[in-house]
Write a structure and sequence with these properties.
4 copies of one chain form a homotetramer.
Chain A (H helix, E strand, L loop, with lengths): L1 H29 L6 H8 L3 H7 L3 H25 L4 H18 L1 H11 L7 H25 L8 H21 L10 H10 L4 H6 L4 H8 L1
Helix pairs in contact in A: 1-2, 1-6, 2-3, 4-5, 4-7, 5-6, 5-7, 5-9, 6-8, 7-8
Chain B binds a DNA duplex (21 and 21 nucleotides) through helix 1 and helix 3.
Amino acid sequence: MEWECIIKTKDKNDKYQRILQAAINVFAQQGFYQATISQVAKEAGVADGTIYLYFKSKDDILIQFFSDKTKLIFERFREEVKKVNSAIDKLGNLIRIHLEEFQRDRNMAMVYQIETHQNYRIAEDQIKEMSKLYLDIVSEIVEQGQAEGSMRRDLYVGLVKRFIIGAVDEVINTWLHSDSEYDLASMAQPLVDLFIRGVGNVGERNNRLPGREILQARMT
Amino acid sequence: MEWECIIKTKDKNDKYQRILQAAINVFAQQGFYQATISQVAKEAGVADGTIYLYFKSKDDILIQFFSDKTKLIFERFREEVKKVNSAIDKLGNLIRIHLEEFQRDRNMAMVYQIETHQNYRIAEDQIKEMSKLYLDIVSEIVEQGQAEGSMRRDLYVGLVKRFIIGAVDEVINTWLHSDSEYDLASMAQPLVDLFIRGVGNVGERNNRLPGREILQARMT
Amino acid sequence: MEWECIIKTKDKNDKYQRILQAAINVFAQQGFYQATISQVAKEAGVADGTIYLYFKSKDDILIQFFSDKTKLIFERFREEVKKVNSAIDKLGNLIRIHLEEFQRDRNMAMVYQIETHQNYRIAEDQIKEMSKLYLDIVSEIVEQGQAEGSMRRDLYVGLVKRFIIGAVDEVINTWLHSDSEYDLASMAQPLVDLFIRGVGNVGERNNRLPGREILQARMT
Amino acid sequence: MEWECIIKTKDKNDKYQRILQAAINVFAQQGFYQATISQVAKEAGVADGTIYLYFKSKDDILIQFFSDKTKLIFERFREEVKKVNSAIDKLGNLIRIHLEEFQRDRNMAMVYQIETHQNYRIAEDQIKEMSKLYLDIVSEIVEQGQAEGSMRRDLYVGLVKRFIIGAVDEVINTWLHSDSEYDLASMAQPLVDLFIRGVGNVGERNNRLPGREILQARMT
DNA sequence: AATGAATGAGCGTTCATTCAT
DNA sequence: GATGAATGAACGCTCATTCAT
């Protein structure tokens, strides 16, 4: 009985996952509103009606996607961040794992990117929760960096969070919409470098450039 | 006759603009696929059929939105960039005008953000064209900055473009989805500062980089 | 005043005819239900609304077509028939002029053929009237032929009428739907020959064929 | 299982046929363009959407009508023609079965007559194929008749085909549009008689043709 | 008289959801 | 639990007709 129950649960879970993954694949290719339940059912190898045994509605699939699948991924981010000590290393790890995971599951990435940019978000609550999860990690890193002295103390943390997540998002977005299949994860280090050092030329400005004073004046 | 003609043209254009604006309002609130032609017609104060005198289809409204309305805005960006000389000023102006314009027309901003992040984009061509327009401006600024010596020469410009546009995008997105109505445009200067200087503390970098004192002074 | 009135009537009639002809052209190409008032207006070189100054409705155009245009043609048939004396010559003239007129105005022919074969006929009354006009001519010819002795007296005239008009119709139909532009009018003589003599081989059957008696038995 | 499968297939086919027949009934009464899917659905006793489980579109119903239903009937024609040997008997059988079948299913006949006389035919390909089927049968009969010597050798077969099919068509058409419900099939023999012997009085032709006495005897 | 912009009823079609098997 | 046929509400779009100019 016990054993049978495990099997059944596993079976049940299997089909749930199969449908969820099928839905992600279809949503990624067609977009949520373009996609039909029939397409998802076909991709999952089940009957249309079967989907309603595992999900309350089409919307519910998206909600489960965010509260189940992507939440797991985001929780992995936190673990990856714990592995190193310095704030800058933590930021590096976060961005690297973020790009790696999204590169590993392109369809997940696509659905994530699309849905988080909707206005009327079906999975509004889940997205907000997850977004907070991510932003909190970044906040903690920045605060640690400031405490360590490795990050500027004059930063508005709320803006820095957006600055970081936005740049990462866009790099992913560009990768998703590009035809060529370049390596997304390799963007991690250059990105971290940009976050830390910015685009401004500190060295050159300092040593060699004329007009430095003017620039300085402007940027105060 | 002349006068009548002007009036008629104006009327025609008026109704076109009225429908377009109504559509943007509805799309912003409901999302493109949720929105119905009837809602747009009601919002515009015309009959459903009237919309088809000015637009070929529902999709066409979105296409016109991108090739008409937002294109104008993006061309303004270029003008605003021309007004100043240094690369860093240009970047500042670009980001300021971007945030200002998007703050000025919240619904436009919403539709823009939503549609540019879709997978199957109805206005694909228009978005690509506009995206290129923006990226080109940023590219030119970065290249000028590198020539001037105000920006690092070891930058991968393709990444810097995404880094900048992504952060701006996310800042807008956060503003769009926030309940409180804070001032978006005021984010421009801090953002530029982040782009230029990064989050890293020069104090730490000091060990490796010359020029610490000057930057530290500015940063207090 | 008198003169002005004539001019006006002429103008009015001109536009009426122009619209009617335009409608026929469009109906012929697109079919009545496929055709739109806008297309007719464009073809006639008038505004959509103008059509409603001359015709009560779209249906009314078709009604006028039958009660006006084709009626005139069918009345010409009667005149052509009068020009000769013998029944067989009259039949020949009828069929010749019929094919000639329909060849001369291909679009009129098309609309005529299409509409007379509808079930729910918009111009039901007009078609019935015209059909009667034609059938009456044929009836008279057959009756004269019988009186003259040039046509069989054992004919069911109701059937003969259909037999003749049907064959003519089909010959026209085939011509209308064929790609090659052969000469329709040249079918008149062979058709009359078929009507008169049938396909049966009188001479040969009589002289050379075996099995003649059997055939005879069967056909009584 | 076997049995269940048969039942299911039967059910599926049943509904397909039910919808097809319902559509024919509605098309016959209203005409194809006047008829709505809702009317067809109501007549078939199904929901509107159900129709699209069996037919791709409204047009497809008409296409299936021609490629399924009427094709079967026309193939029966060929069989009926095979049952007898002489060309004239074959022609008689063809016309008899044609009239019988069309009388048996008045609505089918109506839709057939209407659609085959359209200009822009939705089921163009199917109609052309079927038309060829019929014309080929007639051609073969005429050629056989000529070989046998029972039909004139100076006939233009292309014209004879139209001559025959046209007369049959018109007889059907007249029956369809008449109010009184006379027996259509009874027209078969008189029609064949007209085809073979024509309307001309052999007595007159006598001067030119041999074999008069025999024919005269048969004709009294 | 002539225009043509505006109307809105109406239709073909889709698809999320249900439910009998 | 699994199926997939059936449903019917809903939507984009068309076009005959009207009417202010």
